[in-house]
Each structure stands twice: as C-alpha cells, then as structure tokens.
C-alpha cells in the first residue's frame, strides 16, 4: 500500500491557491474564489455582521431617474411646445378634448359662453398649473370651455394617451398631478362658498388677494397681472360699475394702489375682519 505524503495547505501555493494536477501536465494554480483573510483575526470587540443598504427602486426610464419637472419642461414623444400671444386661444369651446396643457409661463383666462352668447370667466390659470385636465376624466369628446391667453404664454401640449401612460408608470408625476387636482378642487369649493355667503366687496377683495398669491407658500406678488374690471366683474358676479366703486374705495383706504396696474397690500385682509 503506497503511502500518501500530507502536504500542508499553502505548500503548493503560498498565496492560498489550490494546485490542480493533470496527467503529463505541470501543476496549474487556481485562484481561490473567496478573498484572502488576514492571518491574525481581530480580538476583543465583536463586530456585528455588515448590513448592505437597501437598493433604490430601479428607474423605469433607462438609467436616469424620472423627474416630473424635467418631463414637463421640454417637448418630446406626445408633447409639443406652444407659444401664445396675448388674446390667442389655447383651445375653444367645442374643440376636441384630446390634449392636456401644462402652463410653463404666463396666465390664461378660462371662460364659458352660453347659448345666447353671454360669456363668464370661471377661472384664471397661471404658471406651473395644468389646463384642460377634464379630458382625462370626462367621457365628453368636446371642450366645454375656452382658454385664452391674458399675457404671453408658453405651454406644453401633451396628448391624452401620453399623459395617461406616464401617470400609470411614474408615481412621481401621479403624485404631483393629484396634488394639483386636490388644490383645484379646494379652490372651487371656496369659490362656491364665497359666492353664496360673501358680499361682492369681499368677493372682489378675495380675488385680488388670490391673484397676488397671498396665502401661498411662495412670497406674495404684490403686483397683480393686468386684468380688466370686466373680467373681475364676471368672476365675482357683479357689474363693472360696482367693481370700479370698490376699487376706488380700496385705494382710498390704502389697501391697493391702482394706476394702470394693481398693487395689493396685505392690509386688504382687513376687509374680512369687518362685520
């Protein structure tokens, strides 16, 4: 019986490799799969097992994480930039309701015209707001209102199909859009309460404060974008002469400065403290 010589581990390969032998071939060194450990183990404090940080969710748009603001900032698949001059129309009542708009800059007026030709302003839409979003929820194939530019505007026109696709695939945009809808809904409810219970004077004061962005997180803009007394009258449900009367009264009390443009002061809030 032949005797096998025991060779300590590392004798064939001092670096910890394992020697493989083949018939008639020289020994071949195979590198170990595990990393080489230190010869002297650490003593004293016992360390806890290392924990790898949780991996982030894999981005759905290639290697770049989805950014809602970037998506709404430039044209692309199913998206087109639209520039409007003052008084130009983004869409008209009766047009096909197959697109949604995102306002990048400017301000638009949303109006409804009755069968007998009477027009009423129902909303003002500014930068970083959506426009024509009803097409996503309504089965009605036509627009029920008209959106026209009050100033020079830059819009992003997004097809209904593309908007629905991205809302389903990108939770960041869906969250942003949901926040917008909730804010819009709260505003509509406040408008209704204002119309039912407040005087025309308080309704005018509220509209001016909203136009100056009082109550928002951003710093108020004391200068209101140029708006006619006719539009203000339509929005609060009164006549132009009453709007003119209240505007002059607000100016005399120092609540506003009115000389071509409207500059709103926070003292206008005092109107709501009066009984």
Keywords:
275 residues; alpha+beta; Jelly Rolls; Arc Repressor Mutant, subunit A; 2 domains; four-stranded antiparallel sheet; 7 helices; 28% helix; 23% strand; globular
Helix content percent band: 25-40%
Q: Taking all residues together, what is the mean pLDDT? A: 81
Number of helices: 7
The CATH homologous superfamily of the largest domain is termed: Jelly Rolls
Describe the strand arrangement of the main beta sheet, using strand numbers.
3-10-5-8
Proportion in β-strands: 15-25%
* Head-to-tail CA distance between termini: 116 Å
Contiguous runs where pLDDT drops below 50 for at least 5 residues: 8-39, 44-57
Sheet of most strands:
4 strands, antiparallel
Overview of this protein structure:
Helix 5 crosses helix 6 (229-236) and helix 6 (229-236) crosses helix 7. It is built from seven helices and 13 strands. The chain has 275 residues and is an alpha+beta fold. It folds into two domains: 66-197, Jelly Rolls (Sandwich); 199-275, Arc Repressor Mutant, subunit A (Orthogonal Bundle). The protein is globular. The protein has a four-stranded antiparallel beta sheet. The longest helix is centred in the last third of the chain and has 27 residues, at 171-197.
Mind sketching the topology for me?
Elements (H helix, E strand, L loop, with lengths): L17 E5 L2 E6 L37 H4 L7 E6 L4 E3 L7 E7 L2 E6 L5 E7 L4 E2 L2 H4 L8 E4 L3 E7 H10 L1 H27 L2 H12 L11 E2 L4 H8 L3 H13 L3 E4 L1 E4 L11
Antiparallel strand pairs: 1-2, 3-10, 4-9, 5-8, 5-10, 6-7, 6-9, 11-13, 12-13
Helix pairs in contact: 3-4, 5-6, 6-7
């Amino acid at each position: 019986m032949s005797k096998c010589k025991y060779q300590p581990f590392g004798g064939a390969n001092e670096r910890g490799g394992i020697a493989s032998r083949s018939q008639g071939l020289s020994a071949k060194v195979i590198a170990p799969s595990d990393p080489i450990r230190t010869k002297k183990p650490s003593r004293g404090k016992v360390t806890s097992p290392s924990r790898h940080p949780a991996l982030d969710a894999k981005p759905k748009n290639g290697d770049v994480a989805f950014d809602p603001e970037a998506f709404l900032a430039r044209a692309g698949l199913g998206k087109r930039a639209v520039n409007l001059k003052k008084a130009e129309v983004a869409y008209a009542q009766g047009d096909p309701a197959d697109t949604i708009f995102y306002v990048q800059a400017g301000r638009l007026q949303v109006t409804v015209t009755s069968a007998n030709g009477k027009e009423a302003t129902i909303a003002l839409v500014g930068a970083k707001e959506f426009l024509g979003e009803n097409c996503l929820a309504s089965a009605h194939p036509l627009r029920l209102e008209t959106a026209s530019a009050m100033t020079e505007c830059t819009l992003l026109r997004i097809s209904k199909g593309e908007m629905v696709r991205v809302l389903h695939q990108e939770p960041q945009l869906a969250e942003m859009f949901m926040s917008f809808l909730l804010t819009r809904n709260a505003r509509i409810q406040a408008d209704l309460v204002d119309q039912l219970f407040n005087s025309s004077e308080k309704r005018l004061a509220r509209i001016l404060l909203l136009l100056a962005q009082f109550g928002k997180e951003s710093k108020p803009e004391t200068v209101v974008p140029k708006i006619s007394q006719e539009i203000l009258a339509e929005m609060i449900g009164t006549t132009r002469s009453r709007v003119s009367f209240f505007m002059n009264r607000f100016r005399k009390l120092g609540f506003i400065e009115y000389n071509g443009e409207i500059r709103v002061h926070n003292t206008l809030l005092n109107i709501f403290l009066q009984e």
